[in-house]
Amino acid sequence: MDLDKLNFLPEWDDERYEDEEGEAWKTKELRAAGKALYLKWREVFGLVFAYAENLAEESEEKEPHGHSTQKLIYENSMVIAPKIRSATMVNMYVLQMENAAIIRTNARQLMEQAGFAVLMGFAEESYKKVIEEAMNEFRQLFKEWIATFRKDEFEDEWGLFV
Questions:
Q1: Torsion angle, CA of 77/80/82/83, rounded to 10 degrees?
Q2: Nearest 5 degrees, angle CA 76-CA 126-CA 35?
Q3: What is the value of pTM for the model shown?
Q4: How confident is the model at residue 102 (pLDDT cuts 50, 70, 90)?
């Protein structure tokens, strides 16, 4: 398995996040935290994909439904990067919080699926622990990123993020 090919997420591109002249100071902290979070996610993403690739090989021998666990891990992991980028590009609190909630949900579900793979004997506990450690580092950066969100005048018409 070529580990370099498992992480196909693009590098962070600062040019995509340019503000109007004179306005960059408003989102500087958000952008810096978003970049750090995204870069950490790229690391976690590579670990998760390596885990899932190995999981497929193990599950074929033991359980025909192991591929569904692998698929769920892929799905959860692929949602997070675009949500980080989206929430970092938009300067609306409601949309930032919505994206953050989706990231949290997918990260939790990913770890639940990784735990299930161990429970079913598709993967080793030690491999899951490596992902857990990386996810804990990601979670700390996530908290720092969320702290940069600023409430604005826009109302959440669904009443969730008020």
A1: 160
A2: 45
A3: 0.85
A4: very high
